[in-house]
Amino acid sequence: MNQPLLKILPIVAVFFAGVALRRLGWLQRRHADLLLRIVVYVGLPALILSSLTRIELRADLALLPLCAVLTVLATWPVVLGVGRALRLPRASLGAFVTGAMIMNMAFEYPFVLLAWGEEGFARLALFDLGSGLLVLTLVYGQACWFGSGRADPRATLRGVAAFPPLWALLLALGINLGDVTIAPALTDVLRAVGGTLVLLVMLALGLYFDLRLLGTRVLAWGIAMRSGLGLVLGWVWVELFALHGLTRAVVLLAVAAPVGFNTLVFAAREGLDRELAASLASVSMLLALLYLPVLLVFLSGT
Q1: CB-CB neighbours of 260 under 10 Å
Q2: CB-CB contact of 127 with 243 (8 Å)
Q3: Could you tell me if 255 and 247 are in contact, meaning their C-beta atoms sit under 8 angstroms apart?
Q4: How many CB atoms lie within 10 A of CB 226?
Q5: Contact indicator for 94, 146 with CB cutoff of 8 Å
Q6: Which of 12, 141, 208, 274 is least surrounded, with the fewest CB atoms within 10 Å of its CB?
Q7: How confident is the model at residue 198, as a pLDDT?
Q8: Domain residue spans in the chain?
Q9: What are the backbone dihedrals phi and psi of residue 259, each rounded to the nearest 5 degrees, phi first?
Q10: In whole numbers, what is the pLDDT of the chain averaged over residues?
């Protein structure tokens, strides 16, 4: 069996374990919320600090967050036009637009870590920097606009400032650029803790999973806009910037990510179509379990 595929099989197993535990009634969605908080506040910062402080920062790595920003910005007018062509109600249009613009990086972290190691994880974290900044600003602003009809800049800034992985990333970049040496023992602890906790993402996503095939045509368009259009845009960026090797592979995998669960969070908070948001996130994640391993194997061989 292909080595990268063999490495990610446990991730898929953890996801379906989460689905089973929820169906058995042993764990609920509220437990998933707790698991994701642990990952966000401890797991991701630990892995970011252990990987980004040691990676060699080259000019091409600065293109990773830029590729993420360009992907979100280029997706925005396209998905807005498609949503309006589908004649969606305002609340549904808001969920449709935000869903296509939010890349589920949390879903991809375990795959990348096990298949490509810390080098791949560090690159994905840099890509996530660009994606995360726009999700917490532009995309959240869109959710506010379609929900209440106005955006709150102060709430947006508070959301950005309260995101621990962002602070960990900035700290790691400062340590790296400042040539500060971290004790190997501390790095080993951070890597072990982060590598273990990040797997909780898949367990949490299994608990969240809710297969509600509502409005199949709208779902198909939403998922196509997120992963299909994203992959096309990714190919444009890697060719435009002449990216190669692992950096190229990470960009192409990242842009094909499923719909992020922040789509549901934003929908619940701003009064958008929760049914559509939940369906977009769940169905796209199920499909990603099928196509991401294939894409990962393909990219590992290029």
Answers
A1: 27
A2: no
A3: no
A4: 29
A5: yes
A6: 274
A7: 79
A8: 3-296
A9: -65, 135
A10: 86
Three state DSSP letters for the chain: CCHHHHHHHHHHHHHHHHHHHHHCCCCCHHHHHHHHHHHHHHHHHHHHHHHHCCCCCCHHHHHHHHHHHHHHHHHHHHHHHHHHHCCCCHHHHHHHHHHHHCECHHHHHHHHHHHHHHHHHHHHHHHHHHHHHHHHHHHHHHHHHHHCCCCCHHHHHHHHHCCHHHHHHHHHHHHHHCCCCCCHHHHHHHHHHHHHHCCHHHHHHHHHCCCCCCCHHHHHHHHHHHHHHHHHHHHHHHHHCCCCHHHHHHHHHHHCCCECCHHHHHHHHHCCCHHHHHHHHHHHHHHHHHHHHHHHHHHHCC
CATH fold for the domain made of 3-296: Na+/H+ antiporter like fold (1.20.1530)
Closest CA to 182 of 192, 174, 39: 174
Q: What is the mean pLDDT of residues 39-59?
A: 83
In this prediction, residue 58 has a pLDDT band, given cuts at 50, 70 and 90, of: confident
The answer to whether residues 82 and 97 touch, using CB atoms and an 8 Å cutoff, is no
Apex 29 CA angle, 24 and 32, nearest 5: 105
Tokens read off for 105: 């990086």
Phi-psi region of 142 (alpha: psi -120 to 50; beta: other; left: phi over 0): alpha
Angle at 42 between CA 194 and CA 192, to 5 degrees: 20
pTM over 0.90: no
3-state helix/strand/coil string of 157-216: HHHHHCCHHHHHHHHHHHHHHCCCCCCHHHHHHHHHHHHHHCCHHHHHHHHHCCCCCCCH
How far is residue 195 CA from its own chain's centroid? 17
